[in-house]
């Protein structure tokens, strides 16, 4: 796995590089500005980019903008975004165009090495990894948004875990229910969100996007 890190904090940047190299992962470049990050992606053609949301010069959304541009230039690039805060713009800006190979973690998660590495490998393998704290905060901000308000509490629990990137077996284990029960909840979620079977769209990804957008940006 070839990795580029974009982080303006030198301690975190070098700490991440040391951590990943200790796990025998190939950190091919580190960058401290959006421009140097994009140049590194072009030069090294990484499999994964780890990107801070807030970077110079304004420390607002430069990292998100650079991540979107990096994926435009290198389709299929996996991106794991790190943020000190829950950024409401993440779902609509970075997830536009598909939620595969994308992750969003709060920086405090890096200290939980096993969880961080699990999320990194999930994203690199084509999945989605959303920090459970992010999911919880987005949900708390607007728990009664339109179609999402039709979901039962248990269905909302299932959808929240889907947003974290968990599969049916992992959701069943987390909620202490059967995998068949999870499958029934997911079918109900699809029905309540008006997501009919359609080969042109992944209903699971669409449901997660609807969840994140509905709870975070409206």
UniProtKB/TrEMBL annotation:
This is Two component transcriptional regulator, LuxR family. InterPro entries: CheY-like_superfamily, NreC/VraR/RcsB-like_REC, Sig_transdc_resp-reg_C-effctor, Sig_transdc_resp-reg_receiver, Tscrpt_reg_LuxR_C, WalR-like. PANTHER family: TRANSCRIPTIONAL REGULATORY PROTEIN NARL-RELATED (PTHR43214:SF24), TWO-COMPONENT RESPONSE REGULATOR (PTHR43214). Residues 2-122 form the Response regulatory domain. It holds the Pfam family Response_reg. Keywords: DNA-binding, Phosphoprotein, Transcription, Transcription regulation. GO terms for biological process: phosphorelay signal transduction system; regulation of DNA-templated transcription. The modification 4-aspartylphosphate is found at residue 52. GO terms for molecular function: DNA binding. Residues 144-211 form the HTH luxR-type domain.
């Amino acid at each position: 796995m070839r990795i580029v890190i974009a982080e303006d904090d030198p301690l975190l940047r070098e700490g991440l590089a040391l951590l990943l190299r200790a796990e025998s992962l190939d950190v091919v470049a580190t960058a401290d500005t959006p421009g140097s990050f994009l140049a590194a992606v072009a030069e090294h053609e990484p499999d994964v980019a780890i990107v801070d949301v807030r970077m110079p010069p304004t420390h607002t959304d430069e990292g998100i903008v650079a991540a979107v541009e990096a994926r435009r230039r290198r389709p299929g690039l996996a991106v794991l975004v790190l943020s000190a805060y829950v950024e409401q713009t993440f779902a609509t800006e970075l997830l536009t165009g598909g939620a595969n190979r994308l992750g969003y973690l709060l920086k405090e998660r890096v200290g939980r090495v096993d969880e961080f590495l699990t999320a990194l490998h999930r994203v690199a393998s084509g999945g989605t990894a959303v920090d459970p704290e992010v999911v919880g905060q987005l949900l708390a901000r607007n728990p009664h948004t339109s179609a999402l308000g039709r979901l039962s509490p248990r269905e909302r629990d299932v959808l929240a875990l889907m947003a974290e990137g968990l599969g049916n077996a992992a959701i069943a284990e987390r909620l202490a229910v059967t995998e068949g029960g999870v499958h029934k909840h997911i079918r109900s979620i699809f029905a309540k969100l008006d997501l009919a079977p359609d080969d042109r769209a992944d209903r699971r990804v669409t449901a997660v996007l609807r969840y994140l957008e509905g709870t975070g940006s409206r």
